[in-house]
Amino acid sequence: PWFLEVFKARILPQLSPVLSPQASCIQHRLVVRDASSLQILQLYTCLDQIQYIEWSSDSLFILCAMYKRGIVQVWSLEQPDWHCKIDEGSAGLVASCWSPDGRHILNTTEFHLRITVWSLCTKSVSYIKYPKACQQGMAFTKDGRYMAVAERRDCKDFISIFVCNNWQLLRHFDTETQDLFGIEWAPNGCVLAAWDTCLEYKVLLYSLDGRLLSSYRAYEWPLGVKGIAWSPSSQFLAIGSFDEKVRILNHVTWKKITEFDHPATISSKKTIVYKEVEKSPTVDTERLTFPPTRALASSLFSTQSKYDISQVPVSLQYIKPVADRANPKVGVGMLAFSADNCFLATKNDNIPNAVWIWDIRKLKLSVVLEQLCTIQAFQWDPCQPRLAVCTGSSRVYLWSPAGCVVVQVPGEGDFQITSISWHCSGDSMLLLSKENFCVCYLEREEVK
Amino acid sequence: MGDWKAITVPLLSSGSKNIFPYTSERKRSPTSMNSQVLRLSLPSPKNMYNFFGAFCTEENLEQSISYIDRELTTMGFPSIYAEPKGKELNLVCIINCMNELLVLQHKNLRAQEEVEIQHLKLGSDMDHLQNCYAKLKVQKLQNIISSRATQYNHDMKRKEREYNKLRERLHQLVMNKKDKKLAMEVLNYVGRADGKRGAWRTDKTEARNEEEMYKVLLSDYEQRQKQLLLENAELKKVLQQMKKDIISLLPPQKQKPKERSEDGLVLSDQEEDIGELNKENMWELSCETVREQLTNSIRKQWRMLKNHVEKLDNQVSRGHSGAWNEKDVISREDHELETGKLELEIQQCKEMIKTQQQLLQQQLTCDDDTTLLLQDCYLLEERERLQEEWRLFREQKKNFEKERKSFTEAAIRLGLERKAFEEDRGAWLKHQFLSMTADCKPENTTASAFLRSSDPDIRLVKSASRQRRLPSVLSPAVSPEPFQISQYIAQNSVASEKPAADNMPNLWVEGDDKEETEECTKSWEDSGVGPLFRNLHMEQLP
Known about the structure:
The complex is a heterodimer.
Chain A: E1 2-3, E2 7-8, E3 11-15, E4 21-26, E5 29-34, E6 40-45, E7 52-55, E8 61-66, E9 71-76, E10 83-87, E11 95-98, E12 104-108, E13 114-119, E14 125-129, E15 138-140, E16 146-153, E17 156-163, E18 168-174, E19 180-185, E20 191-196, E21 203-207, E22 212-216, E23 225-230, E24 236-241, E25 245-250, E26 256-261, E27 265-266, E28 272-279, H1 294-301, E29 304-310, E30 314-315, E31 332-337, E32 343-348, E33 354-359, E34 364-370, E35 377-380, E36 387-390, E37 395-400, E38 403-408, E39 419-422, E40 428-432, E41 436-441
Parallel strand pairs in A: 28-34
Antiparallel strand pairs in A: 1-41, 2-41, 3-4, 4-5, 5-6, 7-8, 8-9, 9-10, 11-12, 12-13, 13-14, 15-16, 16-17, 17-18, 19-20, 20-21, 21-22, 23-24, 24-25, 25-26, 27-30, 28-29, 31-32, 32-33, 33-34, 35-36, 36-37, 37-38, 39-40, 40-41
Chain B: H1 30-37, H2 45-55, H3 61-75, H4 91-176, E1 184-186, H5 203-249, H6 260-279, H7 288-321, H8 326-365, H9 368-439, H10 444-474, H11 481-500, H12 507-510, H13 513-527, H14 530-540
Helix pairs in contact in B: 5-7, 9-10, 9-11, 9-13, 11-14
């Protein structure tokens, strides 16, 4: 894979959902580039510092949210002259997002007073009252037909399901949760998972028409659910919890079929453990010049690393959680299924340097990636079973069933990758650091 | 008991009269004996020996006795001296004291045992209590947590209500304070993504939404059901296969008289099952009873297989373990006998095979010379036999030739005689005729008839004349009158035959005499004796 130059960008650049353009913003300017050549296509200027940008689903519009000013500006790619500004005024703005049809913008006002649905097609405005201020309070189905919103009235949780077509309320029902923490649709759009706050382990599964299908509770007292993930086929629901385990429910009976443990010592002989080791840079002493060139200097001081296969049993670096702090760094907080349903990647927060990859077909631990630094993020390729991991270093790590590889971002200085975003075609990915981003292009192997 | 230290401990002399079972301890060093003397607990048997050796010897006998007496008296026993200040010992007293001491020892031992048991009990009680305590502690903590949780929830609710109030207030304020400027400024409204126009929200749309939603749900359920059906069908197939395999694995049911009916039923069940479930289409078999049938039959078969395997296992283990059971012993003997027999059989068979092989080898791969020889032998035999036969044949042939020759000669003779006879006859007839014609001439017709008929006669005459010549040749062979007659007969017959035999080749009539005879002989030779005899025979008939 080859990289191109690193660009300075202030906030989350985003790869367009549909192929080409790529947008990033610097301060109050929005830069739109072509994704393959990174050539600047458009340049827009917004009124204030941009906090959030999002492409519409058809890649024709970009919204730029400025939370401080409470303004959302929308730009068109087709018509650069077109402009749109949404001012929430004194209501304030904490979140903004597109609707699945790409023609409505949902603004969440301050203190979660309401969600305003602005339409770009008509003059109509809709309001959703009492939205819940939780981590994942709004969820759209994959086909964009329905939207579920978590609400709270009179100290009770409710879920409302709207038809995105005309924003009509379809269903409204209460949930048996203490403090609803998040909701997520299954990829088939027929089941909605809702889970409670971490003080109470409870996962509820609702059908599209509001019926409670099942309720799952693994244990009572210790801290509960940290995160969930649906498998792309909607067959499995993986629940990661604070007890360092992942429990998998099946879609037929909604009962647990297995649980994955994350112990600090791996003893199974069938697990492959890849360990990242530093390798000292080879310096060609003959090529040394004085004064040393920048490239040479950076190559001397940048640490290269590679993967070694560790012999089982392996003991991983385990961090004992601090008992008296809230939101302890314990438990499985990151989990994601691969696009082909075959693998589940998890991270146990008290073994922060390891990524656990489980084979779903065998329901067994397949691979453990042990990195040198703490895992910041990982994301699956949307097309094939390929996982990209970043640890805050200037390297991105790729794993696939064929093996794993360390990819160094070339360039001077530190490039601390904090998040990854794949392109929908799986050919390239965005690597983001705090202030910069770069695009990594992956060569597709030709099938001979 | 501290007085133990005061005693001087002499070295163990080899000549000590102390007799103990622990003779090995004599090798002990004096220093170790010293240390053991200081022990206050019950001495071990080893130490016992040393004590006994260490305490009293021949030198310090007096001292030991007096010491013992002192100790016993302080313990409350009577003195062992016979008299208060004498040196004689009261044996009875000593024995009594010893007995008392033994009893005391027993008591102490029992007490110690009890104490130990108590100690153990207390220990286990302690553990138990500790566990209980831990559990109680946990429960207590849980109760604390739950109470705190409820309190916390209550507080949270209160705070939330307050917060909600604030929010409402804020919301009202915000909504009231309507900004002059439009909330949304847009250059121009954009068309919808799907190109359609937005619809009004009405009841109809609500109904349609519901419909859509149910459609989505239904299609999802249908898809899932399809998948499940497919899976079920697959699994059923697999189960069927398994059942067949299990049935094939099981040995044929032993026909015990009691169980025969059961087995019969079972078998018939199996057959029925197999028949039924194989005939019908898999997709249709979704009803409860059929499913149950299948699973039940599989369970049955599996159980039988398990039992069978267990039986086999037991047999094998019994065979391996060789238990000291009479039955087993006998069976092993039998087994050994059997194996011996089998081995013998095997040996015999092997030998037979070897011999067979050798023979076969000889047959197939023996030398060329020997084979040729053998073949020659056979051929010679054959040849000799054939030669014999040939000889015989030739002899016979010769005989036949001789006979034939004689016959031909006879035939020729006959022929000659016949000719002669015919000639004579012809002559006689001529004579007769001449004599008759001389008598009566007008009988032309008869003459003509005769002429006509005399053609044969002329022929006859000719032949007769011809034949006359012959007799000159064959006369010696020709015998007198009877033969002449026979010749006449023969000629007649020949003559009578001739007109009939006109169609036949005229060799008989026109050929030369020689030819005739040659023909005769030829024909005789060719056809054998037959025809002439026949001719003769025919003449004789009328």
